[in-house]
Write a structure and sequence with these properties.
The complex is a heterotrimer of chains A (337), B (323) and C (292). Chain A is mainly alpha-helical and 337 residues long. Chain A has 14 helices and no strands. By secondary structure, chain C is mostly helical. In chain C, 71% of the residues lie in helices and 0% in strands. Classes of the chains: A mainly alpha (337), B alpha/beta (323), C mainly alpha (292).
Chain lengths: 337, 323, 292
């Protein structure tokens, strides 16, 4: 087991280098011209400005040299400077990462908790109305464009009913809590500011729901199916024959087994979350990595595109490793092999 | 004679099928006395296991009629709460396949402790765990404290079956129902498991219902035998008498199909296949395979009638002319 | 326990999981969704093919006042430029469906080629190609599609190229797995043993068997590609205004946030297409009995 993990970790830098190389190739070997972003539309005809900009940003070198420099800088932890924000990309990303993490974690927790709960109810009342309703909910949740759902919810709950606040992490005029973790919910609690805490939770509600909806759907159906399978298993009959209460049979015996496949899906759903975050952050003006990625792509901000891709790749690989590890830790058949 | 602990009377079980109800058990009666033992023998599909599961209320979706009384309390139709208090505490059951019948993600110690605590709310978990280790020792598992922390997949089939027995007897039940406890095991392990069961029966005075398709397992492990065929008991009686002079042609067939060291003859299998519950033969269900069958056997299904110490459901053997 | 990342793993097909006990009874119950899926898919396809012949309005020209609420004359109202939203939703099929079709066909072709080549040549070719597949798939698909599309320049054609480059590894992996499993079958091993060429084995044994899983996957993915097309357009990298593309229309709906009807129609259209192909793919999987 330990050797397996070490091998997985050892391979990671190689995969990341692969990602860097691929994105580098894709962005540099295409005809697009990032100089518009750097010097502005008006100066594109001005040779002096353009040449100076090219030199300043290293774009006058050949692509292999640019690549070599990028990778060399990368090994020192330098992700370069954004064409657009004129700040270090590492700084930009670390500024915005907490916002995305807060959103995705909230969505993941919501999706897992509601999904498992809904799945248990659907399995216990199989083919009842909750079962049918949750099937519909799951189908729609995973087939629907998240950005559209976000717009719709904003229209209904913010603009029409006024129950929930509009886009953003806090109201525009609100004072952001002193940054410790970057999570507004946590930071406001640490500062003892209950009003801000409540406001940030209310701001989180809609985007986290939209983002978690798909996960709720997948997790609930999977939990239902595997719980039904487990409830028909021999060991469940044993537990019942031993006089164990039905509640304990479901919660203590069948559910732990039924949740094993759910863990895998929870890990995979991270991909879903990243994809969703890009779009949901755009709809909800959420100042995170997802909206940063969209801005970077729109303005051909090479260093930012590279940085976001790298971060996405790292997140993906780590989540997969974490998923495998969790799975192994929970299933004694794998842990002890 | 001591009073019976468990009395099953005219038990009927049917399942819903695509073309109406399928009668799997059709009027089964038996009783188990304090410390007594009964072997229920029959081919698969004869309704042995289903009868036991029905008595314990473990057949959701089945229609159950008749009566099953534990120390005078009716079990059929009793509330789940009431049944739960009986299951595992007064009536223990162990199953055929120890590979799948234990929970793979819980240590065996925890599973045994869970059974103890299910019937004793006040038992602390530490005490339950200590008792689980004692129980593993009781079923002759070496290094019980270490094994208590093992997961089922870390144990051999025989070990797992011992764990199952430990769970079933954890609360000192009056009756242990053992459903083919040795079928899935190697021959050498089979004898060890049966030894454990017999020893517990003697030491703790637990009554035993041993369900098996193998008459060879019955010898030495039961006082009485009930032979089941097509959802009914076709012969019951004391074990020694039944083995010495079987009444029903089916019982004779079962005995003849057994390899025996004291006879020169080769074992003779019973011809034909056991019938299926969705289409029992009319009349005596055994007649298509019976060497003694006469026309009358096709007409009416015979009742159990006394024949010496035993009771037999066969109109040919029970007929006065035959005696 | 090597769980591999697959960007298709979270398609709606996962939502249709049934417990083992239910799988037997499935074919009977799955019939209704299958018909619904067929009706949706055929319906939209017919619309895409024929809408120029009977289109109620010009999708690009203003037909009345701006931002009209839905009415009998304009079923889904009018947008900020006074164009009929319903007409534009209908015309949206002429972008989404052909784009998704081309993306799927090109991805299947490219993926099969790479997968078959990997299986065909084996050795280092296999190793290199499969590492490329691993890297592409160890990556949130939308980020790569965004990077590629942005570099090529925003526009529906470049979005299409970007999506193909993101999607092909799925089929490469699928085909490589097929080659692996087919190779181990007895009759194929004996065919190789008696000297059948690798090309013959590939053509005779591997490709025919790969046909059904590829078909099922492609059907399931179709809806996902429609969704990704709309997503790229929504963030401004795909179809550009004024073309009537669903994702771009939702962007217009976002800018005219209080006129809910502008975004409602295209959103429902996307939802129905994704659901339709999902139902259809599921029915195909049941019918052709492919279990992954």
């Amino acid at each position: 087991m330990r050797r397996y993990v070490l091998r997985r970790v050892a391979i990671m830098p190689l995969l990341l280098l692969g990602i860097v190389t691929m994105v580098f190739a894709v962005t540099r070997l295409t005809p697009a011209n990032p100089l518009v972003t750097i010097v502005g539309e008006r100066n594109l005809g001005n040779r002096v400005v353009v040449d100076a900009a090219k030199r300043r940003w290293g774009l006058d070198r050949s692509v292999p040299v640019q690549y070599e420099r990028y990778v060399a800088n990368l090994t020192r932890g330098d992700l370069g400077t954004s064409f657009r924000t004129r700040q270090s990309v590492g700084r930009d990303l670390s500024d915005r990462l907490p916002a995305t993490l807060e959103l995705t974690l909230a969505a993941l927790v919501f999706g897992l908790v509601s999904g498992v709960g809904l799945g248990i109810v659907a399995a216990r009342r199989r083919d009842g109305w909750i079962d049918h309703l949750s099937r519909l909910f799951a189908l729609v949740g995973s087939s629907m464009p998240a950005f559209w759902a976000g717009l719709l919810l904003l229209y209904v709950f913010y603009s029409r009913l006024g129950w929930l606040p509009g886009p953003g992490r806090l109201d525009p005029r609100a004072v952001t809590p002193l940054r410790r973790t970057g999570f507004y919910t946590v930071d406001s609690l640490l500062a003892g500011d209950w009003n801000t805490f409540w406001a940030s939770v209310r701001h989180l509600a809609m985007p986290a729901f939209v983002l978690g909806w798909g996960i709720t759907g997948i997790v609930s159906r999977l939990t239902r199916a595997s719980l039904l399978d487990e409830l028909g298993a021999d060991y469940v009959r044993t537990a019942r024959a031993m006089g164990i209460s039905e509640r304990r049979v479901v919660a203590g015996h069948a559910l732990p087994n039924a949740l094993l496949p759910t863990i895998t899906i929870a890990g995979f759903s991270f991909a879903f979350l990243i994809t969703g975050a890009v779009l949901v952050e755009t709809v909800f003006s959420w100042n995170g990595v997802g909206s940063y990625a969209v801005d970077a792509a729109r303005s051909l901000d090479y260093p930012a595109i590279m940085g976001v891709s790298l971060l996405g790749g790292i997140a993906f690989l780590l989540t997969n490793l974490l998923t495998d590890l969790t799975y192994a830790l929970i299933d004694p058949r794998i842990r002890l092999s | 004679m001591p009073e019976p602990v468990l009395v099953v009377d005219d038990l009927h079980v049917s399942f819903r099928g695509p073309d109406g109800p399928v009668p799997v058990v059709r009027g089964v009666s038996f009783e188990v006395h304090e410390g007594g033992s009964l072997a229920v023998v029959g081919e698969s599909g004869s309704g042995k296991t289903v009868s036991m599961l029905a008595v314990l209320g473990l057949l959701p979706g089945a229609t159950v009629r008749g009566s099953a009384r534990y120390r005078g309390t009716e079990l059929l139709g009793a509330s789940q709460a009431r049944l739960r208090a009986v299951r595992g505490a007064h009536l223990g059951m162990i199953f055929q396949d120890p590979m799948t019948s234990l929970n793979p993600v819980l240590t065996v110690g925890r599973q045994i402790a869970g059974v103890l605590r299910a019937h004793d709310r006040r038992l602390r978990s530490a005490a339950a765990r200590a008792r689980a280790v004692e129980l593993l020792d009781l079923v002759s598992i070496p290094q019980p404290d270490r094994r208590a922390r093992a997961y089922p997949h870390e144990l051999s089939g025989g070990m797992r079956q011992r764990v199952m027995i430990a769970m079933a007897v954890a609360n000192r039940p009056d009756v242990l129902i053992a459903d083919e406890p040795t079928t899935a095991l190697d021959v050498t392990v089979q004898a060890q498991i049966l030894d454990v069961v017999t020893r517990l029966r003697r030491e703790q005075g637990i009554g035993l219902v041993l369900i098996t398709h193998d008459l060879g397992v019955v010898a030495g492990n039961a006082d009485r035998v009930a032979i089941m065929y097509a959802g009914r008991v076709v012969e019951d009686g004391p074990m020694t008498a039944t083995f010495a002079s079987p009444g029903h042609p089916y019982t004779r067939g079962l005995l003849a199909s057994l390899p025996r060291l004291d006879r020169r003859r080769d074992p003779v299998p019973i011809g034909g296949a056991p019938p299926s519950p969705s289409s029992w033969p009319t009349g005596c269900p055994f007649h298509p395979r019976c060497p003694l069958a006469v026309d009358a056997c096709r007409e009416a299904e015979p009742d159990l009638v006394a024949l010496g110490d035993a009771r037999v459901a066969c109109s040919v053997v029970a007929a006065p002319s035959h005696r | 326990m090597t769980a591999t990342v697959d960007s298709t793993v979270l398609t709606p097909s996962v939502v249709n999981v049934e417990s083992r006990s239910e799988q037997g009874s499935r074919s009977r119950r799955a019939r209704l969704p299958a018909y619904i899926g067929l009706v949706i898919v055929v319906g939209w396809t017919v619309v895409a093919a024929t809408v120029p012949l009977w289109s109620p309005n010009d999708p690009l020209a203003p037909v009345g006042a701006r931002l009209l609420e839905p009415s009998r004359a304009h079923l889904l109202g009018t947008d900020a430029l006074g164009r009929d939203v319903f007409t534009r939703v209908l015309w949206g099929t002429r972008t989404s469906l052909p784009v998704a079709f081309v993306v799927i066909v090109a991805s299947v072709a490219l993926g099969s080629l790479v997968g078959a080549a990997a299986g065909f040549f084996g050795g280092w070719v296999d190793a290199v190609l499969m590492r490329v597949v691993d890297i592409t798939m160890a990556f949130p698909p939308i980020l790569l599609a965004m990077a590629i599309t942005a570099s090529l320049g925003p526009g529906i054609r470049n979005a299409l190229i970007g999506m193909v480059l993101v999607w092909w590894p799925i089929y490469a992996r699928l085909l490589a797995a097929q080659v692996q499993s087919v190779r181990r079958r007895d009759h194929v091993e004996s065919a190789v043993a008696i000297g059948a060429s690798r090309w013959l084995v590939l053509r005779r044994y591997v490709l025919p068997l790969s046909y059904t899983p590829v078909l099922v996957n492609a059907t399931m993915d179709f809806g996902q590609v429609v969704l990704l097309t709309a997503s790229l357009s929504f963030i401004g990298l795909g179809a550009r205004p004024p073309s009537p593309e669903w994702g771009a229309m939702i962007t217009e709906g976002a800018t005219n946030f209080y006129n809910w009807w502008i975004a409602a129609g295209p959103g429902v259209a996307i939802l129905s297409v994704v659901l339709g192909f999902n139902f259809l793919g599921d029915a195909l999987r049941d019918r052709l009995d492919v279990r992954d």
